[in-house]
Amino acid sequence: MRHDHVISAKQFSRADLEAVLDRAAEFADAQRSATDAHEGALLATAFFEPSTRTKMSFEAAIKRLGGDVIDMGPVEYSSVSKGETLADTLRVIEGYADAIVLRHPMEGAATMAAEYVDVPLFNAGDGAGQHPTQTLLDLFTIREAEGLDDLTIGIMGDLKYGRTVHSLAHALTTFDARQHFISPESLQLPRGVRYDLHEAGAQVREHTDLEEVLPSLDVLYVTRIQRERFPDENEYRKVAGEYQIDAETLDAASDDLAVLHPLPRVDEIAPEIDDTEHARYFQQAHNGVPVRMALLDLLLSDAEDSGGLATDGGSPGALGGDAR
Ligand code: NCD
């Protein structure tokens, strides 16, 4: 079976992930050259939370594939402010576009939304849940920097509310990576994520200190404390500013350590690291374009093959497995 939607990193097998990364590598090689593979395709973006990278790289991706974007615009100017439900909004939008990108503050929103729409739906973040397309560009960046075999990775910061972490950790289980989670106790992985990792046979250890694992790491994936998800601002203040890294921190790291961050950063990574060989986070953000080109290409091609409006060219669907 094929993937109709991209909702959670849990839906992908290793072969699926590699198929997307391989396709993305082809687009990356030709990053500045547009194709007309999906000429006429329209992508709708519906963002109920702020976004810079995810939204703009999806826009760039569909345009480089020959398609175009329609955007719901700010929530306060949409009919959502009149009390329209998410399901109704999306059922209307699907009539305007060939695929939908949704970001919503409610965990599970994308899973629910997928019940209502037939065009491919991309979860661009559902509250503290999942952010699977970010995971693919994270994996792409890791593969470029270190390869995905025999990987030791440290994932640090807000592991409780960080949806990029939840998706990435799951995807990494398919590559048998050794995963070290570094956070204050109050921001450790949610029980459900820990359970899923355990079920997937993940090699996981949890730490409160970076020092004890830093020398063994190939990759350090740093995350922002998700201030907007704290029910109590005082709880945020207790942990804000912990787990920052600077050039001195990295003295203890391997020379080859790749530092990643989904961005935006606040104060987790000192700017002095930006110009070092360790810094991969801006390249990581740039990788969002070829990776999302690959995802759009694969899902739009699948949708076209199964009876949607055919456009010229495009590659045959390559993702096996089931989306739900
Ligand atoms: C992340 C997100 O929205 O979850 N940003 C992104 O998509 N690159 C990370 C964050 O906001 O901290």
Produce a short descriptive summary.
With 324 residues, the chain is an alpha/beta fold.
What are the defining features of this structure?
alpha/beta; 5-stranded parallel sheet; 4-stranded parallel sheet; globular; disordered C terminus
Written overview of the protein:
- This protein is α/β, with parallel strands linked by helices.
- It has 10 helices and 9 strands.
- The strands form 2 sheets. The chain has a 5-stranded parallel β-sheet, with helices on one face. It has a 4-stranded parallel β-sheet with strand order 2-1-3-4.
- Helix 1 packs across helix 5 (132-145), helix 1 (14-29) packs across helix 10 (288-305) and helix 2 packs across helix 10 (288-305).
- The protein is globular and about 55 Å long.
- Mean pLDDT is 92; it is low at 308-318 and 320-324.
- The structure holds N-carbamoyl-L-aspartate.
- N-carbamoyl-L-aspartate (NCD) binds next to helix 2 and helix 6.
